[in-house]
Amino acid sequence: MLLSALDWHPQPRLEPLHLDWLARAGIEVAVLRLDRIDPLISGNKWFKLLHHLRAAHANGAEGVMSLGGAYSNHLHALAAAGQRFGFQTVGLLRGHPRETPTTLDLQTFGMTLHWLGYGGYRERHEPGFWAPWQAKYPHLWPIAEGGSGLPGAQGCMSWVTAARSQLATLGWEDHDGWWLACGTGTSLAGLVLAEAGEHPVHGVLAVPEDHGVLQHVESILVEAGLGNPAYELLDGSRGGFARVDAGLSEFIETTSAIELEPLYTGKALMLLRARIEAGTFVAGTRLIFVHTGGLQGRRGFD
Known about the structure:
single chain, alpha/beta, Rossmann fold, 2 domains, six-stranded mixed β-sheet, four-stranded parallel β-sheet, 10 strands, about 40% helix
């Protein structure tokens, strides 16, 4: 069943973004619409899962298990994929049992849920964390939270090829860099690997700097053997991972040209506006903004 999932290769579209503050600055932005690849398995999550699923298939697994919170975009995409392609999924969740629109979807999609509490979830990085779960589900392949790590990054490398193949439709000969939100840094690492220094990648931290995103990105790049990577990480967390202030809410509500959510894409685009208005980018700059999806998670803020 996992093999059928590996045959699905969605192609994200590159679309121009028309906003007054971009026009005033003379800067062009195109959006790589990962949010539109599929109604359920949307955003960057599928791409981060792909190489993990290949590893699961290569090792004879019948399904996969992974971790996330009560509004996890990662688990939502994984459970939806399991239902569509017919493989078993198990989710290990942060906190105590609760019903959210996301967890109800997970159960509808057929995912088996285990709630770890908060202390139990914090142990997910410990060396022996997976041992009891692999004993309980020996036929399942474990995937790190968010589909992170080098396999997750490798799945995101295809975005560069997809974007380059569509630049001519925008009237662009080239672009000047990438802009995207970062939760673990896996997607950013994939772009950095694919660009190999040709274009810079600007990552906006959706979590505070002490969450170890820089260390995670560096570990992926070292493992992949890439030297002299061209990227930067900017703090766009606004003081916390799930903190949504009035300014962010207003920005999302008034940006009608594109649908955003407050955890990732809203923060990333808002910081881009601030940087442009501060003169960081000169007129004529052309950037690719990655819409990483996550729109289902907005239900946690309604």
